[in-house]
Amino acid sequence: MVIAGDGKLKGELQALVPRELEGRVKWLGFLSDQGDVSAVYRNSDVLCLASEHEPWALVVNEAVAAGLAVVASDVVGAAAELVREGVNGKTFVSKDLDGLIGALRWVTDGENIDGCRASSAGVLADWRKRGDPILGLKTALQHMV
Question: What distances in angstroms separate CA 2 from CA 75, 122, 125, 142, one per listed residue?
Fold first, then answer.
């Protein structure tokens, strides 16, 4: 597991990692260089964002663009647009540990992970098409005529 970012809960979270698993968790801190962020994405399979409050979360856009599967809580604004249930990831109710565990297990299952990762490109392309302001303007103008 790789954890990027810093915050006031870092020490508390580090203390929760069982001693026998400490070597399997990498704490990267805040990554200011986009090249470093991209390298993390290239070496990952899943983005997990278990936020309790997250109006958008650009990290979801980046992860989907990098071809990752995504597990995100239902309060992550970007998840509503960029995570298709059972297609490129899963969402769960914020603060629901069993829901988070279930979503992670489903996404990382050998029968699902490759399909989720491969589907992220199509989900992103569809979102970009739906959000294209020029296409939206053209459509609106056609309906006026």
Answer: 22, 26, 27, 48
Helices 58-65, 113-130: crossing angle, 10 deg rounding: 120
Residue 140 has pLDDT above 90, yes or no: no
Task: Name the H helices within 43-112.
Answer: 58-65, 77-82, 97-108
pLDDT single digits (tens) 111-129? 999 999 999 999 999 999 9
- Angstrom CA distances, 34 to 1, 37, 38, 104, stand at 20, 5, 6, 26
What is the pTM assigned to this prediction?
0.90
To which H or E segment does residue 128 belong?
helix 113-130
Exposure string of 47-77, with b = 16+ CB inside 10 Å and e = fewer, is bbbbbeebeebebbbbbbebbbbbbbbebbe
